[in-house]
Write a structure and sequence with these properties.
Shape: globular
Order of helices and strands: EEEEHEHEHHEEEEEHEHHH
Radius of gyration: 18 Å
Number of domains: 1
CATH superfamily: Ribonuclease Z/Hydroxyacylglutathione hydrolase-like
Structural class: alpha/beta
CATH topology: Metallo-beta-lactamase, Chain A
Bound molecules: zinc ion
Number of helices: 8
CATH class: Alpha Beta
Largest sheet: 7 strands, mixed
Helix content: 25-40%
CATH architecture: 4-Layer Sandwich
Number of strands: 12
Length: 270
């Protein structure tokens, strides 16, 4: 766990997303939750020393950000689309995945249930807790429902998966052009530290590199469409695996992720 500023903590070493939390005068505000049950319990015990969890903000509709909600107290806050995704999520599928990746953790899921946001936003929402401000901003890109969490008093922003720091990005549900705009918005927030959805902590100087990655994906798939290359052929040909590694633990999915990314862009750019 890294202490980023006087009151902000984040963890970039867990499997899955990078969760974080902010210690305010009136309790703790969490941003996302650890994916693996054992990590979630460890994280809960570490956070307990800083006070009760008041709010838990989910930055996006993917399970590696929200499946750990179960282990925590606090009112869940997130995008309307994230609420829909959580309501539609299957507990059986989650258990099946864990059966393959960490079977021992199944014992920790006895009364497991998903916890969807009970406070939602579609564009913006501001929480005032203690002396801290949490600006939640919908920044479509990696999915339509991404939410950045900007804490101006700490000059920190949690970017959601719109920033993958030097690891492969997932574009399987992307809105690619809006993603470029959202990165511009992130670059303009007055923050010294960015907590990316995946990969190590970074700062605003990384945004142009992330933009270039999304732009290169767009250009490459667009060129393939223009040349009349079929989707299947494009999927066989296009890969960005040589640019960044897959995040630790998901290496075997590298090829498949490239194919999903191509399929999504092929569909939306046509
Ligand atoms: Zn994601």
């Amino acid at each position: 766990m890294a202490k980023i500023t006087a009151n902000v903590y984040a963890e970039t070493g867990f499997r899955g997303c990078n969760p974080g939390f902010v210690v305010t005068r009136e309790g703790v505000v969490m941003i996302d939750t650890p994916q693996m049950p054992a990590d979630a319990i460890k994280w809960r015990d570490e956070i307990a020393q800083y006070g009760p969890v008041r709010y838990l903000i989910n930055t996006e509709p993917h399970g590696d950000h929200f499946s750990g909600n179960y282990f925590f107290e606090g009112t869940v806050v997130g995008h309307e689309g994230t609420r829909e995704a959580i309501l539609a999520a299957s507990v059986e599928q989650l258990k099946e995945r864990l059966r393959q990746t960490d079977p021992e953790s199944l014992a920790l899921l006895k009364d497991y249930r998903y916890r969807p946001p009970t406070i939602t936003l579609s564009q913006r929402l501001t929480l005032y807790v203690g002396e801290h401000t949490f600006q939640l901003i919908n920044i479509p890109g990696h999915t339509p429902y991404q939410v950045a969490v900007y804490i101006p008093e700490e000059r920190v922003v949690f970017t959601s998966d719109n920033v993958f720091y030097k690891v492969q990005a997932w574009l399987h549900q992307a809105l690619p052009y809006q993603w470029l705009d959202s990165l511009k918005l992130l670059e303009e927030l007055e923050a010294d530290v960015l907590v990316p959805g995946h990969g190590k902590l970074c700062d605003r100087s990384y945004i142009p590199e992330m933009r270039a990655f999304v732009q290169d994906w767009i250009d490459t798939v667009k060129a393939a469409i223009k040349q009349g290359i079929s989707l299947e052929e494009a999927q066989d040909k296009i890969s960005f695996l040589d640019r960044y590694p897959m995040e630790g633990g998901s290496e075997p999915m590298g090829q498949q992720v490239q194919r999903w990314n191509v399929a999504r862009l092929y569909e939306v750019l046509q």
